[in-house]
Structure formats: structure tokens, C-alpha cells
Amino acid sequence: MSKRLISMPYSEIEKLNSRGLLEAIALGEGRTLAAECVCSVTPLLSDVSNAEVVSSLSADFVVLNMFDVEEPYAAGLPACEKKDTIRMLKKLIGRPVSINLEPVEVGLGSENLWAMTKGRMATAENALKAKEMGVDMITITGNPGNNVTNEAIVSSIREIRNVLGDSIILITGKMHASGNITEAGEKIIDKNMIKEFIEAGADIIMVPAVGTIPGLTLDIIHELISYIHSYGKLAMTAIGTSQEGSDTETIRRIAFNCKEAGADIHHIGDSGYVGMALPENILAYSIAIRGVRHTYHKIGQSINR
User: Fold this and answer.
1) Which of helix, strand or coil describes residue 32?
2) Model pLDDT for residues 134-182, shown as the tens digit of each residue
3) How many angstroms separate the first and last alpha carbons of the chain?
């Protein structure tokens, strides 16, 4: 009998293929929490990776931002071979792992933290390397200022799906405009773009969380998620506007609204300061969407079970 991801020990989770993992998320009925971390910066707790911290606060899976498949690294991990970075991380956190890949050229955004490198491009070659390292999901999206377009996302989905087939989960979409003013606000995503993502091979469609992008109201996000569900796909709402560093009441409001909108997965971003959401906000979000029972169960459950 299939189980919900929120209830499964890691010994069962690690045996799931991509289809099984998608089913386990769907069975959670909107109670799956994904936490994003910037893996290239000094961790919040110095010698403990941000991925370990967000997992300890009840995240069901981790999204690594700035992970370069050509130079694998996650700050705060024990020493290991570069090729074993993801497996070491999963051994420590007992969670599935996604990485962000971006469909833009090397060097874009070179004056800021998000400067692109070859190993972070959304190509089939990089996705295959990630899969071989143990990555469970690829999130095809864009960081601030990198000018990722929806058209480029569609092309990357097709390329990666053609090479990897159904062996890996593809999460696609944007949580902010990524520096592209023509795809800002209500133009970030619409039904036509959702259809293109799905037809190209996306498993999970990412839309901005309610209250994070000007103009994208609860009614609009609910309509988009209903459309995603009509194709039998999952929807992930995402906080990518630094509101993961706001007060807990704001986080609870976002969580309630995204739950009402129909989110299957709730994503909380990586910019409390820089690197991960504020710990208290991860807890507040988790408790809002699934209560203290499931939150503390996830916190207390040993990864060795």
C-alpha cells in the first residue's frame, strides 16, 4: 500500500523511483514542505550545512541553489570526494534532494552572487551528471537577474526529458521574474505556459506563492493550480521574494493561502538572510499546513529508521 511522504522513514523513501516519489507527495494532500538552501555560502550555523538545518526543522525535501555539477560543493559538509557530495548530504539529512539548474548562458549575472557557471546550466549533460550523483529532482528555474525566460525553460525541459526519460523528476517554473521585465507580475506564468511546460515533460509546475508577486492573487493562483491538476500534474507554490525572512504571521498567511489555492508542495526560499529561510518561519509554515503532529514527527524521526 502506498504511503505519504510526510509519514515515510528514509529507508522507504530512498527506494522510491521518480513515479513512486510523485505518488507519495500527492498522497500528502498539500502537506509536503520543500526548503531551499544556497549551498555555496557559509551556513547559518557555520559548521552545519543549511540542508541539515532545514531538514531538522521538518522539511520533506531540500532544494539546493547554486549547486554546480562540475564543481560539486555544499558548505558545512564533512570532507568527501566531490562526486559523493550529494550522497553524503542525503546520508546526513535522510531526505530527497533537488538542485536548481538555469537555462541561461555562462557569465550572466557575473557581478553578483548568482553569476552563472557551466555546471549550473539546465542542459541534459548536467542533468545526467546530477542524476548519477544521486539527485532525485531537477528544478528548472531562474535566479535573480539571470533573465531566464519561460521559452528557455520549455526548451530545457524537452532536452533533459529526451535524454533522461522518466528517471528523474522535473520541477519547472519561476517564483519571480528573474530579471525579465516582460515576464513579471501576472505575466510570470499563465495557462498557456503551463500547458507548454507539461507537454514538454514537466512533472511538477512551480507557481509563485500567494502574496509574493504583485497581482497574483489567491483566485488567480487557485485557477492556475486547478488547471495544473486537470493534467494530472502536481503544483508547487514557491516563496522566492525574500519573504521567507519576514515575520511568522506573514508566513502563516502565505501558507494558509497556498493551502487554499490547492498547492501539493509548499516551497520556502533561501533568503532569510542569505542561504536559508529563518528557522522560525520554516516551523511556522510546517505547523500551518500540517499541524504539530506531523511537524514534530518529521523532526523527531531518526534518519536511520
Assistant:
1) strand
2) 999 999 998 876 778 889 999 999 999 999 999 999 999 988 766 666 6
3) 19
Task: Enumerate residues 6+ apart whose C-beta is below 8 A from 151.
Answer: none
The three cell numbers locating residue 3: 504511503
DSSP state string for 95-109: S-EEEEEB-S-TTTT
pLDDT the model gives residue 232: 98
CA distance linking residue 233 with residue 199, whole number of Å: 11
What is the per-residue pLDDT across 212-231, written as a single tens digit (0 to 9) for each?
999 999 999 999 999 999 99
Q: What share of the chain is helix, strand, coil (3-state, %, to 5)?
A: 45, 15, 45
Q: Cα–chain-centroid distance for residue 293?
A: 24
Rounded to whole angstroms, how far apart are CA atoms 124 and 191?
A: 26
- pTM of the model as a whole: 0.95
**Which domains are assigned to the chain?**
5-300 (3.20.20.70)
The single-letter DSSP state of residue 78 is P
All three cell numbers of 138, joined, read: 531537477
Backbone angles phi, psi at 85, to 5 degrees: -60, -50
Residues 86, 97: contact at Cβ < 8 Å? yes
Residue 149 neighbours by CB under 8 Å, 6+ apart: 103, 180, 183
CB atoms within 10 A of CB 9: 14
Please give the grid coordinates belonging to residue 220: 488567480
CA distances from residue 171 to 106, 214, 253 in whole angstroms, order as listed? 22, 23, 24
Q: Supply angle C-alpha 244, 203, 99, rounded to 5.
A: 50
Per-position DSSP letters for 184-244, written without gaps between them = -GGGS--HHHHHHHHHHT-SEEEEEPTTSSTT--HHHHHHHHHHHHHTT-EEEEEE-SSGG
